[in-house]
Write a structure and sequence with these properties.
2 domains, binds arginine, 15 strands, D-Maltodextrin-Binding Protein, domain 2, alpha/beta, globular, 40% helix
Length: 268
């Protein structure tokens, strides 16, 4: 009798371990949880599809941070708007997608410490008379919907201005420009600088406007998930300290990151 009881208890424990589905949608196996990470992989060099694999700075970065925090990850390309929904309804544990930390996003999501410095810039055809943000007035501007590129453009042209075309991803916005359906694209500097450099045949220039605010990227978690935030914040700081962050940055951006400014930002 005793034997049977012990046996069934063991079985129960084993079943629990095997099923091991956290209520946050993550799965547990062999003690290490696998977190589901979602992204919009149309934002090279931050995240993009390399054949059928999600690749880029953010992907190397989140893999390194997760490893440091003791998690496995499964990264999936779901698109920009969907990634926010997935994290909100807890179908995903983490969203990483060059997401700028903004007060209104902080109302719905918990952000990690800042891990990347960015600003919006303007991509224009060579010879364009657009030399600054205010020159966008009266021009057709293509942006990715729901990004700070859209918000910066709206600040200049006004909300609901018909000259602003909003696309589901930034690749489509840039295509609109290269096929002359738009006069400019506003998006994060790393992305448009890389595009202009890698596509010299498209003859594009990048215009900088010093009045565009500096932005910081953060990783998003479900609102209030203090445990994941703590683990990842610690892991991110370790990557800053041990040279891993700089290595990943060099690999994808080809320059040295300003880790001091990032760390300074944590004190605010
Ligand atoms: N940093 C900008 C924002 O947060 C744009 C990010 C777009 N990211 C992407 N993977 N498409 O609004």
């Amino acid at each position: 009798m005793k034997k049977i009881m012990i046996y069934s208890m063991l079985c129960g424990a084993l079943l629990l371990l095997l099923a091991g589905c956290g209520k946050d949608g993550s799965t547990e196996g062999g003690g290490q949880k696998t977190l589901r990470v979602v992204t919009d992989a149309a934002y090279s060099p931050m995240e993009f599809m390399d054949k059928d694999k999600v690749s880029g700075f953010d992907i190397d970065f989140i893999r390194a941070a997760a490893k440091e925090a003791g998690y496995k990850v499964k990264v999936e390309h779901v698109g920009w708007d969907p990634l926010f929904v997935e994290v909100k309804v807890k179908r995903a544990d983490i969203g990483i997608s060059a997401i700028s930390i903004k007060p209104d996003r902080e109302k719905s999501y918990t952000f990690s410490v800042p891990y990347f410095i960015s600003t919006n810039k303007i991509l224009v055809p060579e010879g364009s008379d657009i030399k600054s943000g205010k020159d966008l007035k009266g021009k057709r501007v293509a942006v990715q919907a729901g990004t700070t590129g859209q918000f910066v453009t709206e600040d200049i042209l006004g909300k609901n201005n018909k000259n602003i075309s909003k696309f589901e991803n930034t690749t489509l916005a840039i295509m609109e420009l290269t096929k002359k359906g738009a006069d400019a694209v506003v998006a994060d500097n790393a992305v448009i600088e890389e595009y202009a450099k890698k596509n010299p045949d498209k003859k594009l220039n990048v215009v900088e406007d010093p009045s565009f605010a500096g932005e910081y990227y953060g990783v998003i978690f479900e609102k209030g998930n203090k445990k994941l935030k703590k683990k990842f914040d610690e892991a991110i700081n370790t990557l800053f300290e041990n040279g891993t962050y700089e290595k990943i940055y060099q690999k994808w951006l080809g320059s040295t990151p300003d880790i001091e400014t990032l760390k300074e930002q944590q004190k605010k």
